[in-house]
C-alpha cells in the first residue's frame, strides 16, 4: 500500500519513519501548504514532493495520511475521499459531530476507509489490559479515571499556536489518548462525575 502524507509538521517524522518498521506500506509522497517544509521532508525521507492537488490525484497512492492542523482535517479528508483514496488523520477527526457525520457518510458512499488517531489503544499494553478485563479475572470494572500533569504544549512544541485554537488544546491533543483507552477498556461512557 502506498501512502501520501499531507502536512509535514512536527508529528510527521513519526509517520515518515514508520514505514521502515513494517513491510506492508510505503510513504512515497508528501505535501504541505508550506512548500519549504514539504521540500525539506521530501529530501530528508527520500519521497516525492507534490502539491496537495497533485498528491490527491496521484494514481500510485492508496491512502492519504492527514497531518494538517485540526481546522483543516475535514476539508482534507473529504478531498481525499472524493479522490477515491482511503484516509487516516491525526486527531481530532473533525471539529464537531456534524463534520464527523459528513465524513462518515461520504466514506460509506465511496466504500472507503477512514481512520483517526489515537490508535495507541491497539498497542500491546492496551490489548493485554482489555484481555484481562474481558476475561473477568479482576471482576467488574465500575469506574475509570486518569490524571495528566504536564507543563503544556508551549514548552515542547516548536510552533504551539494551533494548540490554543478551536479543535485543539489539552482535551483534544493529550486527554484524547486516555479517554480513548478508557472507552476501549470499559465501553461507552454512561455517566461523568
UniProtKB/TrEMBL annotation:
Residues 1-114 form the Gfo/Idh/MocA-like oxidoreductase N-terminal domain. Pfam families: GFO_IDH_MocA, GFO_IDH_MocA_C3. Residues 127-192 form the GFO/IDH/MocA-like oxidoreductase domain. InterPro entries: Gfo/Idh/MocA-like_OxRdtase_N, Gfo/Idh/MocA_oxidrdct_glycsds, GFO_IDH_MocA-like_dom, NAD(P)-bd_dom_sf. PANTHER family: BCDNA.GH03377 (PTHR43818:SF11). GO terms for molecular function: nucleotide binding; oxidoreductase activity. This is Uncharacterized protein. Signal peptide: none annotated. Keywords: Oxidoreductase. It comes from marine metagenome.
